[in-house]
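User: ok so my PI wants both of these folded by tonight, can you help

Assistant: No problem, let's get them done. Here's the first:
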Amino acid sequence: MTQLGEAIARFHKLLTSDPIRSSGWVEQLREQMAARRLVVNHRPVSPVLRPHFLSRRQYISLVKTAETLSSAIARMLGLIVANQHLLNRMELLPGEKMLASLDPGYSYASALAFLGSHVNNGAVHFANSSSDMPTGIVYSEMLSDLLWDTAPVKEFRKRYRLEKTGGTKPFVQALLKAYKDFGGRKAPAIALVEFKGPFVTTETHELELLAELLQRLGYQAQTVAPEQLTYREGVLRADGFVVDLVYRAVRAHEFLLRFDLDHPLVRAYRDRKVCVVNSFRAELGRKKSLLSLLTDETLTRDFPPAERKAIRETIPWTRVAAQAKATYGAQTVDLPEFIAKNRSKLVLRPNDDSAEQPVFEGWTTDDAGWERAMRTALRDHYVVQERFEAPPVAFPVDVYGDVQMRELRVDVQPHTFLGKVHGCSARIAPAGGAFSTVAGIAPAFVIEPR
């Protein structure tokens, strides 16, 4: 067992000790989460009863690799915006393509981004980028503070040095840096734009908490629905509130399902009368088709060696599912034929993360099911990706007052602000990928022996 594995086993053993078990700390933790609005759809935002632990070596490797990949992603996004052929390969809606063509008023597509990764011993693998509207920063910081003071973590800290990761300070700094680069010269009035009312499928309080944080720092800030916005005489307003800076918490494709390109937010953005963070160009960074371009060595051959090495070692081979030829290693293959013959090592993922579009894992699908999945993928904007499976991690979970161990999948998300990593958090979900209430956020702590 590794040192990290021994530390985690020690933490789990602490939970069964009489002083900890009888202290009522689980009930107190749940009450504090509810009181601080750390809930999503009326459930605690964190389903687990310990932080996700990373060794110092793992964290340093994660930061270095994430920053290198962030640089490669920014480089590729620059190529895409300047090249219509590459833009066409992104499988965008027409409205998304138009929005991506607009200059946001600052030089980077994403001021704030998460990279979805799996950390296993010394290896790091990246599967996606949430560079349009990263979520969980406020929740993760508040969860870190709550867990830090629980009975088992206090006892655990007597033997191990723990370091919290993540935080809202660099988030706010990046938000304001984008506004300054846009040309802002005063303290901005900030609208945090999100869907409300009948458009909401997930009830979360994170934007409210972020607005309250900005208010405590002295900024005018409020959450706003897109239908509250008006644009007249070069000024964007929300029910009379003049808006200088928009924190965008609505995805472009969902926005375009409800509104057209004459919406006040789009017109103000197009006229460069409001700073929008993240820009609509950031949508390019979360499409799975971006990984197809990054893993195409004919496009990255002029990238710096460190970026090419990071891509090669951490991003699985990915191609847009289409009736086309594709490169796989040194071979050129007919893509549909290759997908059909290599079911056991491939997965089909929607280009856009969506609850309506399933992921198809070839190794869990029979031949007939894989043939149906292929037809769906070739029709509905999917990518094919080489299989990578992260081993599940054991976590204690509160099941109606009973602490039980569950094997869960962990996606570690480095928080990247203006290309630099400042902490990380973890997304927790069932190992099999099925729907479950045992899903949510866990803060990440760096651990070292004393």
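One down. Here's the second:
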Amino acid sequence: MRVMADRGYERASIKQIASEAGVASGIVHYHFGSKQKILVALVEELSERIRGRYEGASHYGSHREKLFALLDAHLALGEGSDPQVVAAWVAVGAEAVGQPEVREVYAQQVARTVEALRTHLAGWLVSEGKDPARSEPGAAALMAAIEGAYQLSAAAPGVLPSGYAAPSVRLLATSLVDSA
């Protein structure tokens, strides 16, 4: 993750990845076979980290609270935030554009997130007596905001205020419900 975050996919080498992990290059080749397989494994690892952050914060509460916990898990509000995770995810997204195997795994993870966003947004809308059909475009907007925050954080660090993303996307979610 650190090598991909620091160097990007194209400039990262298996030798550098092995060195960072403190193992021989042959071991990395044996377990993964290619740099692309490492990238696919990275997608799964990053998704697991976010899922763990969310599950640790979402046991109880309303759909609104669960939606906010999901946004916070993605946008690194609270403990466990790591700028390298964000930079690695951006590198993965960039590679997903040109590599079908990476795109498939990346799209699956994004689809899971969109479905969770939609579920909690629909539940919140219902609890407010509003039409849950608005949850589908709302979830898409929230996902776009998450990915945009990742991109800006990785590509232009320090330009936007620290900690802006989660509160801003929470405000977007609230606006989506209020305007429904």
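DSSP finds nine helices and no strands in the chain. The chain has one domain: 36-178. Good luck tonight!
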